[in-house]
Design a protein that fits this description.
49% of the residues lie in helices and 6% in strands. By secondary structure, the protein is mainly alpha-helical. α2 packs antiparallel against α14, α12 runs antiparallel to α13 and α13 crosses α14. The termini are far apart.
Length: 425
């Protein structure tokens, strides 16, 4: 009994310390937010004509990062980066830029019959996680656009859905097993398919990405189907809405059967070649929470699962150190423990909020903001990713040099400040 009492006291003490350290005041983030606001022009590019491998685009766009004199330089637009960068600038000042980015993505779809990984000719063999309907509805709702605007852009998203993500043959052989889709590359190379996930590289697929049905991808496609249903209801087309909702429910049931592990209370990628679930727990498993396809009971179990990922500085991308991460000759897996990434924190936090777990969401936001802020206060930059296990130390290495001044980190930081810090004033 005494041991239990001592342990309970320790837990209570740690929670008090966590709450104190996790609170970030408006004054503490003021300088960082000013830095972010002044940084956006450094990320803006305009290339209306093709230039060697760089694809010309009709409107200005944002690149992921910029650092003067850095050998690894960006001049192209990236698909899912663009979505997460928008999240912090959904305001009147950036309206033209945001609408232009959507136009650029659709221009790529029209020209290449795919929204490529990025606007480079050598990156047209694969895409990135599909977020077009999320962009469309964020813009539609933020800027109160009309039904004709929505109808035009939803049709572009439907083209992407059918041609790219539901394709069954080359160059888009993604829908491969029981109506679910995989990440893919035209060259049929596992590592290139893995880059389509945006998680290049990671331990989820054991270097065999073409063999897996990813939980995040199929949750995003569920969101497409529900977004198409939402649009149909706005257009007063109940029959079309019901058709899309049925497609979404079919996907949900299949995902639950193949990917939901009842014992572990979590979603896992499914190896359809071996017909078994993968064994790597990752934050990709929270995408179903974000898109709203889980039951309340599943959500409750998924909240319990947070303890596998939650550490001092936020959420680790996977729940354990891959054994081969630092072995000579292996590919560095930067999308893994101990690294944390801004877009994944956003997905998890908004998923928790959606199901009413506001306290858990706020705790994670506090940790993530503090990790970002402490590094900024010391080094005067934001990073592409962070070592959330030991926030004062550099993140685990990846295939390319670690980036600073990073667009989606800046944007998610600003968005969290808007949603949580400003809300606490």
């Amino acid at each position: 009994m005494l041991d239990k009492a001592i342990n309970a006291a320790r837990v209570a003490k740690n929670l008090v310390l966590l709450n104190k350290s996790g609170h970030v005041s408006p004054e503490e983030v003021k300088k960082a937010r000013q830095y972010i606001a002044e940084y956006w022009p450094k990320l803006e590019r305009y290339h209306p004509k093709d230039d060697d491998t760089l694809v010309g685009l009709p409107k200005p766009f944002l690149v992921p990062a910029y650092e003067k004199g850095h050998e690894f330089d960006f001049n192209e637009m990236y698909y899912w980066d663009s979505y997460f960068m928008m999240l912090g600038i959904l305001d009147d000042k950036h309206k033209a830029l945001n609408l232009g980015v959507l136009e650029d993505l659709e221009a790529l779809m029209k020209r290449f019959k795919i929204i490529p990984n990025a606007s480079r000719t050598y990156l047209t063999g694969h895409s990135q996680p599909p977020v077009l309907t999320s962009i469309i509805f964020d813009l539609y709702e933020t800027y109160k656009l009309d039904g004709e605007w929505l109808k035009t852009h939803i049709e572009h998203a439907k083209d992407e859905y059918h041609i790219v993500w539901m394709g069954t043959t080359k160059p888009n052989a993604r829908q491969v097993y029981r109506g679910l889709s995989r990440y893919y590359d035209f060259n049929y190379i596992h590592d290139l398919a893995e880059t389509e996930s945006g998680w290049d590289m990671n331990p989820r697929f054991n270097r065999k990405a073409l063999n897996y049905l990813p939980v995040d991808l199929n949750a995003l496609l569920y969101k497409y189907e529900m977004d198409f249903a939402k649009a149909a209801r706005i257009f007063n087309d109940a029959r079309d809405a019901a058709r899309w909702e049925n497609a979404a429910m079919h996907r949900k049931h299949t995902m639950d059967e193949l990917m939901w592990d009842k014992l572990r209370g979590f979603y896992y990628d499914y190896n359809y070649v071996k017909e078994k679930r993968g064994n790597v727990s990752s934050l990709a498993g929270y995408y179903p929470l974000w898109v709203g396809m889980v039951s309340d009971q599943q959500a409750k179990q998924m909240v319990r699962t947070l303890k596998r990922f939650e550490v001092k500085g936020g959420l680790t991308t996977t729940d354990a150190q891959p054994l081969n991460q630092f072995m000579p000759g292996t590919v560095p897996t930067q999308w893994a423990y101990p690294n944390g990434w801004a877009p994944l924190h956003y997905i998890v936090v908004k998923g928790l909020e959606r199901y009413g777990y506001s306290d858990d969401a706020r705790r994670i936001v506090g940790k993530w903001l503090k990790t970002n802020l402490d590094w900024f206060n010391k080094h005067h930059v934001f990073l592409e990713k962070y070592n959330v296990l030991q926030p004062g130390k550099p993140p685990g290495k990846g295939l390319y040099p670690s980036q600073t001044g990073f667009g989606w980190t800046n944007s998610v930081f600003e968005r969290f400040c808007q949603d949580y810090v400003d809300a606490d004033k």
